[in-house]
Amino acid sequence: MRAPGVRVRQSDGEATRRNLADRRMLRTDLGILREDGYLVLPVVNAGEPSRLPGELVERDFPIVKRQITSDYRDLLDWPPDAKALLPRSFDVVGDIVLIRLPEELEKRKHEIGEALLSFVPSARVVGQDRGVHGTERLRSIERLAGSGAWRTRHRENGIEFEVDVERAYFSPRLAREHERVASEVKSGEEVYDLCCGVGPFALTIARSGRATRITAVDANPSAIELLRATQRRYSYGSRIEPVLAPLESFLPLAAAVDRVVLNLPHEGIKYLPSVARTVAPRGSLHYYEITPREEFDRRAESIMRSLGEEDWSVVDRHVVHPYSPTADLVAFVFARSRS
Ligand SMILES: C[S@@+](CC[C@H](N)C(=O)[O-])C[C@H]1O[C@@H](n2cnc3c(N)ncnc32)[C@H](O)[C@@H]1O
After folding, report:
1. Domain parsing of the chain, residue ranges
2. Distance between CA atoms of 172 and 193, rounded to whole angstroms?
3. Which residue's C-alpha comes closest to atom 13 of ligand 1?
């Protein structure tokens, strides 16, 4: 197919491919041409020739036939025993793909990265997710394929969030929960989003338009900076007040509000007595915890003891998503009585 292309020395090919891909100019439906020590990379829209990383030319490019498959593992021509180790699932955050791999696949991780890069249509870069750590729940990521930064925009519930998967916590697996909490907010409510990260609860609640004010608190400066960047792009963002502070200094001075969200699944329990005091009479508390599956039925009652039992009742408990073979991330919703 006839199309514009950028001609560069073969030695500059990979740098040019990355440059064009980062600028979203590279066409992936057409193949790259080789010409005597030069490469010609097909581009979407040549734009201003002086800003191109090579000479602008026009060529007949071959059309790339994509393998149609619903499973990235089909793209890897591996022996069955190695294939059996490949995880079925992965996360997509904007144009970033994150996957967790077992140690046995260490030597083949870059092949897996390349397979995911060609499998996920929106993918720009693929990283190995080496888990979250520390109080800020920061993710360690190793690049497996593709290029560019770990910052992206992720679309969820009609909002494009500013996300940096390395500098502030974000999980695409919580989208339904963000929406569920927002749908429960009643007209005129004041809300605290404690441990807000980049603000998915706060922004989804703000977008639904019923809360008058949402205070979003986190101790990670990058999380608050990303929240502010998203907030600025939406008029409803003005209902959110981002607060950069640890709960330890925010909670003692906080007035009571109608609804409080606390999403700090590994450590939240230690803050519950002081969080409970920030929930107004007839208010609600959404509390998240990693709960062993065998404890699901009785856990809500023992959490209530941390809240001050006589004042509270359990309104709901549900699994948000599986966390490990034996535990889930569970949402507990408590209501405070009138007194
Ligand atoms: C699991 S993330 C939750 C993020 C967000 N609520 C969401 O749904 O994506 C926990 C967040 O709590 C913050 N955090 C941890 N300890 C904190 C503390 N003592 N005070 C304030 N924020 C804290 C971390 O920086 C992190 O952003």
Report:
1. 2-60, 72-148, 155-336
2. 18
3. 195
User: 3-class SS at 174?
Assistant: helix
Residue nearest ligand 1's atom 11 by CA = 195
Domain 2-60 -> CATH class: alpha beta
Atom of ligand 1 nearest to the CA of 199: 5
Tokens of 300: 């809500």
pTM score = 0.81
pLDDT tens digit sequence for 207-248: 999 999 999 999 999 999 999 999 999 999 999 999 999 999
One fold for 72-148 and 155-336:
no
4 CB near ligand 1 (under 6 Å)? no
What are the angstrom distances between the C-alpha of 112 and each of 17, 21, 31, 73, 335? Answer: 20, 19, 21, 8, 47
pLDDT tens for residues 19-69?
A: 887 787 888 788 889 898 899 999 987 667 777 888 999 999 988 766 567
Fold designation for 155-336: Rossmann fold (3.40.50)
Structure-token pair, residue 185 = 């907010």
Yes or no: is domain 72-148 CATH 3.30.300.110? yes
Query: Residue 104 — pLDDT band, cuts 50, 70, 90?
Result: very high
Distance from the alpha carbon of residue 138 to the mean position of ligand 1, in angstroms: 10
Instruction: For ligand 1, say whether the CB of 264 is within 6 Å of any of its atoms.
Output: yes
Centre of ligand 1 to C-alpha 45, Å, is: 42
